Amino acid sequence: MQDALRKYMKSLLVMLGLLLPVTAIANITVHGEVARIYPSGNAVHFKLKNDQCGNTGQYYYFMLGTEVEKAWYALLLAAANTGKPVRVSIPVCPTTSYVQVNYIYQDY
Prior knowledge:
single chain; CATH 2.40.50.340; 36% helix; signal
């Protein structure tokens, strides 16, 4: 019984170990200057200049539900005003025209 439990635990740990690298590389970070911002309802949509995903019609968006998301909106407005680039984490390069962001940040 002990050996069967050990084998089960080992195989479970191996499977979890194989899944972790997949989740670590699942996100993509794109960067660029803000090309356009427009709020619509409870969401903020925006485009980046020279998007690395190569889709010129691509809009990123996030909902304005938390204080952090309101700070992202302020960050986008400031970056657009100063011409400084932002970095946006997304799940994958999208094939549709809208993709929800994971987070936004800016290097100084």
